[in-house]
Amino acid sequence: MRVLDYDIPDDLYYSREHEWVRIEGKTAVIGVTDYAQKSLHEVVYVETPKVDSQIEQFQSIGSVESVKSVSDIFTPVSGKIIETNAELAESPELVNEDPYGEGWIVKVQLANSDEDLKKLLTAEQYADYIKSLEE
Amino acid sequence: MTKPTRRTHLYGFHKQTGKTTLFAGFEMPLWYKGIIPEHMAVRNEVGIFDISHMGRALISGPESEALLNYVTTNNVARLTPRSAHYSTMCNEKGGIKDDFVLSRLEPEKFFLVYNAANRKKDYEWLVQHSRSFSVKVEDVSDIIAMFAVQGPKAQITLQKIAESDLSKIERFKCGWTKLDGASVFLSRTGYTGEDGFEIFVWDTPLSNPAKAEKVWNAILKAGKDFGIEPCGLGARDTLRLEAGMCLYGNDIDENTTPLEARLGFVVKFKKENFIGKDALLRHKAEGVKRKRVGLRMLEKGIPRYNYEVWKSGQMIGRVTSGTFSPVLECGIAMTYVPTEHAVEGSTVMAKIRDKLVKAEVVRFPFYDPKKYGYRRQKNAGVRL
Hints:
In chain A, about 25% of the residues lie in helices and about 35% in strands. Chain A is an alpha+beta fold. Chain A starts with a strand and ends with a helix.
């Protein structure tokens, strides 16, 4: 769906820190939302964690830096990092251009997704949250 | 109680086409297209900035030169009519009250352009010291609109709508002309490191912004074929930082002296007397203990305001300004370090979010002055 100026795909889960997660069986793809990339604007560096590191839900696993500011990436799910988006080293602007696609940040092998997902927002809940922030 | 937000003549344009931000009490454009494309437009072609938030004062009268020579550090006697120079005002301790550009319009008439954040402070300081001089000090900030047109194509852009030959106005010279029929004062100065002009649309109160809008739009139209971009404060900050220019409040303030800030070239000790002279002479004699230097990151990461700078296991300073350099494509910063560490080419560490990241101490400007900036070799770095 599209809320205000922001894309919020229906099939993803969201955190209040503006990360999204796409569940694909036992793995998850994580990135930052359209709202996050529009607020940051002009991303110039993405710092990602090491592959194989164990991560806990809502822990900082890296950062997204734009010309003007820097934001932590808080993982929306727990598990083990199995891949990081190597393209972002050369082309961090992918986070701006395609935040839900080519601009993905890490892939995670899920540990306890059922519990984690309960603490996340659905697209509709995230849309309401965005509206409340823009008021 | 919070003060109401102030706006400039061009507020309508900014709100409609850009993202705005609060700066020194003004709602100003942060960017229109984006900081990086705006920055590169100025380095390679031309950009236009609304800087009507800045402070402006007219100082006139038989003792105007004497007053200005007393309150500022540069030598005003050497400033000929239709010339401008960069200078500072210091307090009695030699701390910088502000930095600014002073233009001499006529033998007994000067025009001072200072920082938006210091509008009130500077005006009051001038008025306070003017009492023992035969002068008049007028705050004209709200009745003059001010734009900067900067970049290697600034002159050919403005020439299309200028009444007189702009090539006759050399760097740090100023004069009157008409732009698109409107009478303006302009100086060949700026805050980007590039060639360019600062344009003052006289007699344009905020309540009647039509003339300012007309000139702004005419410049945008004239620069269209040259790739002109309207630029916000975001690009203004990255441009001045790349050029190694100070931002008041960050890189200099009342607790820093011009000598520490490496602005000694605007302190003329041979002048008879000026506020802060004694303190600065003592400071010079005792030796300057810390100096402003540039840091260029050798690894990924952007050093930002207040981040720590380390050397050999010791914290030696803090970042006063830092950003991503669109030209160098890496993090750059300004910081003050003890003089013994202000060594070009030496390595220090910037603490970026708990990690020590390698940086090199470099000279200003950060970019190669043969390729960028007003001293660039003709055609180098310009896309033709």
